[in-house]
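Lab notebook, bench 4. Still working through the backlog of constructs that have no structural model yet. Next entry is a single chain of 483 residues. Request: give me the C-alpha cells for it.
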Amino acid sequence: MAKDVMLQFVDRGQAFPEKREPDLRAQDFREIAERYAPPSAEEQAGRCSQCGVPYCSVHCPLHNHIPDWLRLTAEGRLREAYELSNATSTMPEICGRICPQDRLCEGNCVVEFSGHGAITIGSVEKFITDTAWEEGWVEPLQPGPARGQSVGVIGAGPAGLTAAEYLRVLGYDVHVYDRHDRAGGLLTYGIPGFKLEKHVVTRRTQRLADGGIVFHLGFEVGTDATLEELRQKHDAILIATGVYKPRAIKAPGVGAAGVVDALDYLIASNRKGFGDTVPAFEDGSLDAAGKNVVVIGGGDTAMDCVRTAIRQGATSVKCLYRRDRANMPGSQRETANAEEEGVEFVWLSAPEAFDGGDRVTAVKAVGMRLGAPDASGRRAPEPDPGAKFDVPADLVIKALGFDAEDLPVLFDARELGVTRWGTVRTDSRTMMSNLDGVFGAGDIVKGASLVVQAIRDGRDVSERMHAWLKAQKMAIAPGKVAA
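Model written out:
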C-alpha cells in the first residue's frame, strides 16, 4: 500500500496550511494558520520519498521516526501515526508548532535537496497530535508501580516537564518546583500565542498533574527552601531552570525609561492574554500601543517581540540586527511572517547609544559591515564609521539572548559547581552535577537552545536518574533486583 500513496513529491507540490491574511492575524494572538484538513495532511505526508537514510530524523534532536509516521498518515492510519510520534516526544504538537523545522528536519529533507520543496513535517506533526487530543487517543499518564523514592524537579519548562513525566511513569513520586504561578516555563510565558496558543500547553501540564505529579508553583528555591533542604526531602534532584538572565547592552542611555528586556515584555503580554492584572502593562511601560518600537536582536525572541508589538498596536516596529538577513540566527519563516505583518528590518545596524535623557526618544545607531568569520563560522560584524543614523523610539526592547542566573547564590548553594558561563557543570555521561544525586538538564546545562533539545535532555536525564536511583536502592537493600 505504501508504494501507492508515497513518493508523490514530483506530481504533488508542497502546500503548508493556509495562513490568515496579515492584516487580520495582526489583530489577535491566535495562531496564524489553521491546521490541515485530513485530506490535505494525508496528501502532504504522501510526498515523502521514504529515503533509505532519513536525514530528517538524523537532524531531529529527538530522532523522531518521521518517515514512518508520515507513511502512516498518508495511509490514513492516524492513531498509529500519533502513537509512533508520541513514542519519542512528550510534546509533539508543541514541537510541530515552534520547532525551527527549516533549520532541522525540513531543512535536511532529501525532497528539499531535489528542488521539489521539503515535506511539511511540522504541520503534519501538529495535525496528528491535535487530532489525537480531539479523538481521545491521548491517554492519561499512568504511573508505574510505586518505588518508594521521590524526585524533586526544579523548573517546569520543557526539560523539567519531560523528565517529570518519564520518572512518574517509572513509578517515582515527582514534585515540580517553579517560580511562576503557571507551569510551562517559556512555553507559557515566553512564546506568544500566535506561535503557541496557551491551551496547548495547559492541557499537557494538566495531564501531568492528573497523573500524580505534584506542582509547587510560585516557589522560589533559595527563599522558600534551599537546594540542600530539597535534597533532604527527595532522593534525587533535577535542576532544569532554563536560562533567564538577559544579556546586557553597554551603551550610554541604556538605563533610560522605555528601554526594556525582551522577557519582561513577553511575560507581560502573555499574562494579559491570561487575563491577569499586569501593572507594568497597564501603566504603558510594557505596552507597545501607539509607540515607535525598536527591537534589538535577530533571534527567535526578537521575532516574538516585533510581532507582539504589531498586535499591540504599535505605530511603527523596526528590528535592528548587526548582521545581514542570511546570517541571522532566527527562523527565516518567522522573519517573513514579521515582514508580512508590517515589521521593518534594518539589517547591518547596531545601537551606539539611547537618546532622550530620562525617557528614550531615539536609538543612535551605527551601520555595520561583515568581516572575517568568527568562531561560529559566520562573518563577524564590525562598525562602519561612515554610517550613523538615528531611529525614533518610544519603546526599545533588548532581545540579545539569555545567560544563566547565579544559581549558587540564588539557591543558597555555594557548593554547586558551575562553568565560567554560569551553567550547571555536569558529567557528560551521568548528567549529574558535582553534588551527589543532583542532576542537570536543558538550557541551564547547555546554554540557551531549542525546546526540542530541552525535551531530548529531559528524556535522557530521566534514564540517568532512574539508573542512579536504582543503584542507591540496591545499595540499601542488596539482593533485590529493581526493574
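Notes after review: The chain has three domains: 2-135, 150-243+404-476, 248-401. Residues 251 and 353 are 5 Å apart (CA to CA). Flag for follow-up if needed.
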